[in-house]
Amino acid sequence: MMIRLTLLLSLALLGFTNSFTIVDHLLSSSRCNIISFATSSSNDDESSSSVDTIKNRADLRYIDASIQRQISSIFSSSSTGSSDQLDGSGSTFVPLSFAGRYKAQKIDNKQSSSTFASSSSIETIFLSSPEQCQSISETYIQYLKSNPSSNPLYQPSSTIIKALPIPISHFYTTAAIKLLSTTYTNTPLSKSVLLSLNTLLMRDNGLYDNLPWSTWSIDPNLQERDAADNTIDEKYTMGKRVAYQRMMGKDWQGRSLSLGNLILKVKYLLERDEDDNDAGRDTNDDTDDANMLYSLSKRLLQLEIKEAQMYIAECEQSVAIVTNNNEEDGGSSDIEATEELDKARERLQLAETSLDELNETDNTSTNKQSKTSQSLVSSILDKFTKQDNPPPYRGAIGYPAKLDTKEEMLEDSVLPYSSPYELLLEIIDEQLNSKVIGCVLEPTSLIEGNLVLGGALLLQRKGVVKTTSISGESVSYTDDDDELGNKGVLPRSMYVVECYADEAIGMAMAANMPIFVEEDIHTRAGQVEVELDIEQADSIKEDNGIEDNQVVESIESLSFINRIPLVRPIDESYLSARVEGERISSEKESNQVRIPLTTNPDFFDGSQVAASSSSRSVFSTFNPVKSLDEYDELTDDAKARLLLKLESFTGQLPRPRAVRMSKSNSEPSILDEMLIPLVDETIRRQYRIKDAKRRNDIQEVERLRNEASPRQVALERLQQAKEEEELLGIDNEEAIRLAEEEAELYKALRADITQDEGAYSQYLDRDDWYERETQARIQRERERQLRKKS
Predict the structure, then answer these.
(1) Element housing 604 (H / E)
(2) Are 181 and 421 in contact (CB under 8 A)?
């Protein structure tokens, strides 16, 4: 350990450009030694096998009743999710756990018209009650470790559980199963393995994307505020970037090569040597260690002197620039720049004084140096491990590197995490100062009869622990008014993070909490009977070179994915290979969980959108809504289908919960806000005029009417003429014809009737005079042809 630390510090101090690679290789080698040593030295009682680990997954922590009420209030399909429903009114939610997985065989392409049908197989994960999950897990392990011919008790029919199937889209099947398998086995991973898995969390519109990085990343020094104390634009905030760098290995525990952490390595080594001396140690070893520590400390101080000198040069440059600018303006030099220069000079003086003190021991005898060097080095190192501006969390940009504790540097740096979800939980705890209090599966499809489940996490902001002195005693308390630089985000504030279903299940397992599902959904779709999949379990034995009459000696010899129980439904007709949006032929299909639609399809519900590949206009000409009355009659199902048909829609449909909440608060709803900008501009203006009248906003009504396009004026004149003819019996046939021609003319002029005038280049529209002459010429030609025929 001493030799490795010496080499590490020497490489860093000598400034090798490839020192990090070498150091990482050294630490990786030592990690392997530590693993083998721990395995060989642990006894049977202390070792944690995969069997015990999997069993512990079912031992969930106590389910807080208040959290269940919060989940019921927010996610219940019978509630609106408004703030006045925090009494817990709503449906009951069932706590479930991860039971196992099932890989179906090839799917017949005739069964489904979706692109998913072209894939060779479908992965399905099953959720069940914690007790049933433990039962199927024990049965699976016992079957692998037993000989089926001599142990008939562990046949598939011996353990049957009822479970909720969750099909996984083939777009992210591999990533989902890898993440779930490492989280389920709960085995510590090396840094290299974990970093390769962390990238699997980076999915579009997934958990990582939807966490509130820009608004909840703590900023106690208000570095992400402008001069007017306003929060800077979201795209310039550092929260998501910092989290990504953490996931890619930045500021890893015990791996930092910053000067402060290098000094702490020596300090912790000194403390360990002092413990060894108390236990009894050879005097010659003490002398050798003292000489080595003296040399290392001298190198550290020399490096600190060079950094302090460079920092002084930077401060002097800043003072000179500020002084020159102020002299031109007739002002005085900047006080802050001068104070920073004074601090830099004090830093240099401290380093030089400490080096002189250390050099005084060079002329002393070896025995004396052995006795005094450790205490002297410790006192010197303590001076350089203090940070005036410590980082609020690991990896924070604009702050020095976080100083590792003794446990983080010497113990936790080896195998600190068992899955990417565990690392993400730590980032949420430190960077967002929050905790995950609930994991939920909720309906995500707005299309009637389609049961699609997506994940959601409920975050809660933690309080800020502070310390004060009362009567000479240190007292800790929680400050419930400190926002930590996040405006409006107080302790106990909540945030719903939408994610994929497998991500919510993985986070629930990492946090050792259940995954909640609404009771009505569980009653409809969660009663599928499943049993142990003997065929796939036997194939695992074959893959590992185990013959039929042999058994798996150690579960640890299997890969992570093979440690997950392999189950299969007794009646496979209860599993659906259909994708969201396909036709429903029976009530049974409406109760089956479908594969979520991840992209806009080329076809939808069996009818293809009409489009000519030979001649395409600059903008989409698909305009299914012809009037405001037609739009008002659209249901949420029809609006969702319409959005998916529109080529101009590239976003993601909101969840039913979000639509319900938006309807309860105000109109238009979140679904209307997505669809209205994509429909005919005349219908959009009429809708906004109607909404302004509802809000009694007379000024907005006048503004919208004054900005009406010529086409809308013609359509309103056409509507008025039709109403007069119908209600008053006036013959308005000629007026209706002229208004229709005028409306069609202005429609033909526009390249895109769904956009407001001026929203795109006017050169894309046709000229008014040219279009009138063209239509007049066409009309004359038609009349000539009619006269010729007559």
Answers:
(1) strand 603-604
(2) no
